[in-house]
Amino acid sequence: TPIFIPELQGGWFSTYKLQHTFDDVYNFYGDAFTRTAYESVLAQGCTMASIYMVYGGTNWGTVGDVDGYTSYDYSACIREYGYTSSRMRELRLGINFIRSFSDLFTKTERVKNPNVSTSIKNVFNLQRKSVMKNVKLGDEVLFSFFRNFNEQQNPVFQVYVKYKEGQRREQTFSLRCYLQYKTSFIALGNYTTITGLKLIFSTLPIYLRVIQDRVNEIWIVPVNDVGELAFQGEVTVDGNLIPSIRKVGHAIHIVSFNDVGGFARIRSADSSGDLYILALRNESLSTLHAIFEEPYWAKTNNDTNISHSPSIVTWGIQDVYFDSSNFILETQYGDQEHDITILFSREPSKHVRFQSHPTYPLPFISKKQFTAGEKTSEIHLVPKLVRWRSRITDFNNLEWKIIDLKNGGPVENYYASGHILYNTRFSSNYSSSKVYLSINMRHRCTIFVNGRFVGGHTTFSRQLFFPGSKNGPELFKSLGGKKYDITQFLHPNGDEEKNSVIILVENWGINRQAVIFNDCRNPRGIISSNIDGLIKETNLTWSICGVDLRKLDNPFNTSGIPDENKNLEWNESEKGISNYGVIPNDGIKWWSFRFSHPMESKFKDILNAPLRLVLQGAFTSYIFLNGTIIGRYYGNGDCAQHDYYLMDGLLKFGDEENQITMMVYSWETVNPEEIIVEIRGWEIDDVKKTGNLIKLKKGVDEDIEFEVKPWIVRKELIPLT
């Protein structure tokens, strides 16, 4: 105690053999999922939580375990390529509330008999009261947790509040509340502002509290004409928000506002300062940033700072970082974001053109227009792919080592990343009209006999203990094999030439369960193999080859194919793989092309335009970007990923060309017209802010109501002093 959750789910993973993408996962859980989960565990008394994942990532190279493929986007709050999704924007609102009330929320106890109830079921969760040392008995601030799981999905309901004023008899009054289905918020109650106002209860969500000069208090709320604020005692309200005030009982005054953005100032006769209400529309709330000064990390003894009150608040753009050393705001904004609003107690810099805000004409709020918005029109994020080359891996020229197949081979030779190759040769003397090759391996094999493709299969399971299991040790290692009829690929019976079998095996990684489920000794490569139909005198000798990880600076940056970095002869090709196609009998074929980054160097400091590699076609590929593996592609259906993030730190700009090399093979013939290889920007849903890729289907372009263009971020520095 107190409850600590080190891995609060902020999305979900996807794995091999599943056909849904992370965009599908995002749509399944929705925008409010992470915030609702976060506020639900806070209601249970959790005071420390790490959300997994907040920022989706990339399993570059072979670093991922068998549970996940290249993309680890996780449908996270921040998507793999850096986009702040609606899920992050929702979560940020919940975090801002808790952070700005942390002086009261850090230590709470559950209220056994809450003073609130609701007119409909499944909207009120729990209530907690602050038990911080600075809170007097009877003055405990109340935090009421609402989440709308009502079966009728009603968004509007009544909240009944029990309240006892002084020595008077307890009374119950009602407040209107608006909460969309499957969303949540934390309501504030029994709270006294720094100005002396007593808030009995609020069904109007308060997303941020700002203490200004220890005199005034500011609440940021949504534009909402349903939610209400109940105060003890008479209050006066002015500002450009149109208030409605109703009195209940002896001294309860309930305030609500019209459905517009703006501000209100609330005072009472005894107030020592002003309470400001700033009502923001959803598009502004989705970009609300609060910058808190952390005294521990800042090593400051400045008593004028209140750690639970933000020093700077902004809205209007998607990403803001405050450089406290230089007092500069580092901003990033998209196509539809034209200005930033800054709430700052100090007088803004005279070197920056700030304006007063027409909707919030207050001395501590400024607005700045951005001027760099037209630069993106000069960028076309589909570069031309040039200088295509290809070559084929010659299995005969690889360095083979003889092994005892029954006693391993891959780990003993440090072939533990990517692919492993096996070879056996036998005479053309058969005892049967049919010859079968049986193979049991982990996790994926491709078989060639006498230079011709035979077939391939995958042994993988999402079930505990099963063959190729992604969870826990395997109990049935002998299962998971497959038998192939190789008769048609063999030399004629009695032929002097020996037959050669090449088996390419790829391992997707070692699982990661702990203690009694430690499966680090789960099998790799071939577990067993046999050929039926040969004469009794035949003794099969197996050889192996791969990449010795001890010789690499980075053990995860290899396909496992020994000739991947050798200086071999390449054949020039005008149009590349999409003109040639993929032929299984080619075995392993390498393709290489170059491209220039579509963003000119002069824009590098003011724009960020993430790129992706798009692949279509039923082939397998390991993808190298400038010498680093950034993706593993399985177009046959073993993996749903077709879009690969090209990490900014690996890309070259200006006159330097980038090179992508692809190790390619296939289990079926892939015709040229079935193949797509292109580099594009991330054309995403920037309207609903999901960050999901927009997939245009042929013939329905006219149904798209918005322009499909890549996501580009502009960057600008704003000095505040």
Automatic annotation (TrEMBL):
Q: What class of enzyme is it?
A: hydrolase
Domain Beta-galactosidase jelly roll as annotated: residue spans: 564-664
Protein name, per record: beta-galactosidase
**Lineage: superkingdom:** Eukaryota
Name the family. Belongs to the glycosyl hydrolase 35 family.
Catalysis: reaction(s)? Hydrolysis of terminal non-reducing beta-D-galactose residues in beta-D-galactosides
Recorded hits in InterPro entries, A to Z, give:
BetaGal_jelly_roll_dom (IPR025300), Galactose-bd-like_sf (IPR008979), GH (IPR017853), Gly_Hdrlase_35_cat (IPR031330), Glycoside_Hdrlase_35 (IPR001944)
Q: Could you tell me which species this protein originates from?
A: Gigaspora margarita
The residues covered by the Glycoside hydrolase 35 catalytic domain are 1-93
EC annotation from Swiss-Prot or TrEMBL: 3.2.1.23
Keyword tags:
Glycoprotein, Glycosidase, Hydrolase, Signal
* Pfam families in alphabetical order: BetaGal_ABD2, Glyco_hydro_35
